Hints:
By secondary structure, the protein is α/β, with parallel strands linked by helices. The chain has two domains: 10-49 and 151-221 and 314-369, FAD/NAD(P)-binding domain (3-Layer(bba) Sandwich), CATH 3.50.50.60; 90-144 and 222-311, D-Amino Acid Oxidase, Chain A, domain 2 (2-Layer Sandwich), CATH 3.30.9.10. Helices cover 28% and strands 24% of the residues. The strands form four sheets. An eight-stranded mixed beta sheet has the order 5-6-4-14-15-16-13-17, with helices on both faces. It has a six-stranded mixed beta sheet with strand order 8-2-1-12-19-18, sandwiched between helices. A hairpin with a 6-residue loop joins strand 18 and strand 19 (328-332).
Amino acid sequence: MAGLPQRAEVVIVGGGAVGASIACQLARAGCTDVVVLDAGGLGDGSSGKPLGGLRAQFSDHLNIALAARSLEVYSRMAQEGALALDRVGYLFLLRTPGQVKRLQGSVALQNELGVPSRMLEPEEARALCPLIDPDRYVAATFSPSDGYAPPRQAILAWAAEARRRGVRIVPHCEVRDIEVRGNEVAAVCTDEGTVATSVVICAAGPWSARIGAMAGVALDVAPVRRQITFTEPRPGGHPRVPFTIDLQTSFYFHNAGQQLLLGYSDPRQAPSFDRAYTEDWLDDLRRLARECAPSLAQLPFVGGWAGLYEQTPDSNALIGKAPHVSRFLYATGFSGHGFSQAPAAGEIICDLVLGRTPFIDITPLRAERFAQQAPIREITIV
């Protein structure tokens, strides 16, 4: 832990997966006069309670590239012993011919970009996941290179390396304001004092709209509660299955030690910062489980937790730099894919700070796309 300095070349707001990735990559590039601020502890916010899903099965070139590049990083971390990566694969279950037609195109694009995904018949899907009811589905997609990992492991590994290289990380330090003079960032004001700086990077997840507003930058990110629960532990555990998702209902499940983790994205959930876990959603969860994997609906559920998605209107990230406030950059709004795309996002922001050209054009992810009525609409797997 480091105290709050009076000055820093770069201030990163947010100490989750994206913020830690940015800090580490800036430090590797020689930019070490960096301060990371987080209102809580490292990874205690949006990154503290995700599933840790990692996949490259998207339907557009940009998201596939971000995810695939990130998977390469996580694979190296696993080989080095820094991350417990389980490449069990992602299995998307499809109910309609329309879904099949759309995802055939997605799989073709994924294959073109090096992702080893493929279309499956329902019985092939059941061979991978014996819990599902194949009669409910007409097809599936699967990629064996996908999987999941504990986000906190990656965050702590990046933070430790960043600290070794000179980055200062200040947890439990809340940003109260950002001073902008003319059109240039001048300082970040916190409950612990003020840091003079000329570069601010917003990686604050669900809190990003507040941080952007302090600098006069519109970041269209809303906090949305998502909940998960677990089956009762079973001695010896459940069969090892892929990260399995019913594309139509968003019901999903995967292994979690001797338990199974289950959840779904409730479209009725209104934006809020509420992170209290409740059980009033479990009846709907059982109904969705009964449709997808009937045996799961009969199992006792024990506990769970709630966390926040950082949701944008088109469910795609915001990555870039503000056009009217010099040296205010952002990487946020990943809509459930922040951990999955954090390494690539960190690399891109590092390049933008250092004046280098990123490995891919992230112009479509600029925050002003909503004001310009140019949201990304072609994403079919979100």
